[in-house]
Amino acid sequence: MRNNGGLSRGLKLFAHPWRWYLLALVMIGLDIATKVWAVEQFRYGPPLQIIPGLLQFTYAENYGAAFSFLADAGGWQRWFFGAVALGFSVMISIWLWRLPANRRWEPLALALILSGALGNLWDRMVLGYVRDFISVYYGSWSFPVFNVADMAISVGAAMLVIELLFFSDRDSAGDKSPREKDAEV
């Protein structure tokens, strides 16, 4: 009989919670790669229409927070938002570490939020601004330009809200709600 000890040790790298940190790392890489691509393609060139009248790739630099909040505050916001993102990332990392191994939805949401926070933190600390390139618009209305990190944060936050609204009564040990446990008795 063959010993699969090496294989099982290797697979432990992907065991909880490392798999969620690995997912966050992959998403950070995707975010940075798409930002580099956007800078190369659109910084000095015209936008690329993906769906005319609705979606285009362009280039924008955001010196503030979400929706350019405090973008013209004089520079202190770079360090303030960086410290907030770093503190928030530490909190999310600890939360992710403490989750039971059988959870899927919540750690996925947290990994997405973590990747988005760290992806934008990288830009903010290295460049002093966040690179955005996805533009959604219709007629004269336009949504603020965003990036992959912003999408990860938004999707992760929506997943946490769904968890809170629809699944918060589930027991983390058995993932059964009190009603389901009562029905078994």
Automatic annotation (TrEMBL):
The lineage of its organism: Bacteria, Pseudomonadati, Pseudomonadota, Gammaproteobacteria, Cellvibrionales. Belongs to the peptidase A8 family. GO terms for molecular function: aspartic-type endopeptidase activity. It is a multi-pass membrane protein. It is found in: Cell membrane. The active site is at D132, D150. PANTHER family: LIPOPROTEIN SIGNAL PEPTIDASE. This is Lipoprotein signal peptidase. This protein specifically catalyzes the removal of signal peptides from prolipoproteins. The chain crosses the membrane at residues 20-38, 79-97, 109-129, 141-167.
